[in-house]
Amino acid sequence: MNGRLPLIVNTKCECGHQNPVGTVLCEACGKPLLDDPESGETLEMRYDGMARRSQKADPDVIDRVWNFFSSVKIAIYLIVLTLLGSTLGTIFPQESTFLNIDPSTYYEQRYGTAGEIYYRLGLSHTYESWWFITLLVMIGASLVICSLDRVLPLYKALSRQKIRKHRRFLTRQKVVLVTMVAEDPEVWTARAVQPLKKQGYRVFTDGGALLAEKHRFSRWGPYVIHIGLIVFLLAVLARGLPGLNMDQHLAFPQGDLIHIPDTSYYLKNEKFTVEFYSDEEMPEEFRGKKVLPKLYETKAVLYECTEDCGDPSKEPKLTKVASHPIQVNDPLSYKGMKAYQFDYDLTPVLRSVTPKLVNSRTGDSYGAFKLEMKNPQRSFSAGPYTLELKEKYMEFGLNEAGQPISKSPYPNSPAFLFLIKGPNLPAGGEQYFYFPKQNDKAEFQQDAINDKLGGAGRFLELEVGDMSGVDFSESTSYLNIRVDRAMPFVWIGAGIVMLGLVLGFYWQHRRIWLIVEGGELTLGGHTNKNWFGFRREVSFFLNKMDITADEKSLDNGGGQA
Amino acid sequence: MGKARKPVQIIILALIVLLGGYAIGTSAFGGGGKPEEGSRAPSIELLGLDGQTHTLDEYKGKLVVLNFWGSWCAPCVKEMPALEAQWQQWKDQGVVVVGVNVGEDQMTVQNFVNGTGVDFPILMDPDREAVRRYGVSPLPTTFFINAKGKVDTIHIGQLDLSTLSAQIGKLVNP
Question: Keywords on this record (chain B) (predicted)?
Answer without folding.
Answer: Cytochrome c-type biogenesis, Disulfide bond, Redox-active center, Signal-anchor, Transmembrane
